[in-house]
Design goal:
This protein has a single domain, classed as ProQ/FinO domain (Fertility Inhibition Protein O, Chain: A, Domain 1, Orthogonal Bundle). Helix content is about 50%, strand content about 5%. Helix 2 packs across helix 4.
Length: about 140
């Protein structure tokens, strides 16, 4: 019997079960979970199908800051839960490959259609570099 992608992600700890709760970053009050519930994972799949240039987890691109509002204005996503969309965006933007994409020289933010727009701001690039260090430290601590 083959395992679904969601079940495989649960098995390696990248997807949340419905019992897990996202953690909140007190500074932003937005979910900062590395794991997704089944509903959030389904939303991520819908986003990847609809906007493949923006939601490719293997080759992420820097996203526009107001991308969440653009998604909510899209006809297919008007009824999507704000919390669910925030969980998915926190998952996508909190991963190491996304942080690396932000730090690349000449990186540009992308619109929903995948069109490169404005360059990534220097302060965002620095914050992404700091996040990469934090992720590396967290990974080393977890292994110990």
């Amino acid at each position: 019997m083959s395992m679904s992608l969601y079940d495989a992600l649960v098995a390696v700890g990248l997807a949340r079960t419905n019992d897990d709760q996202p953690t909140l970053d007190s500074a932003s009050e937005q979910p900062q979970s590395k794991k997704l519930s089944a509903d959030d994972f389904a939303l991520l799949q819908r986003l990847a199908d609809t906007f493949p240039a923006c939601f490719n987890l293997r080759r992420p691109v820097p996203l526009m800051p107001d991308l969440d509002m653009m998604i909510r204005q899209h006809l297919d996503f008007r009824l999507v839960s704000v919390t669910s969309l925030d969980n998915v965006l926190a998952f996508v933007t909190g991963r190491r490959p996304y942080c690396l994409a932000l730090t690349r020289k000449g990186a540009r933010r992308h619109a929903l259609d995948g069109t490169p727009r404005e360059p990534v701001e220097p302060e965002v690039r620095q914050a992404a570099s700091a996040a990469l260090v934090q992720l590396k430290t967290k990974r080393k601590t977890a292994k110990a």
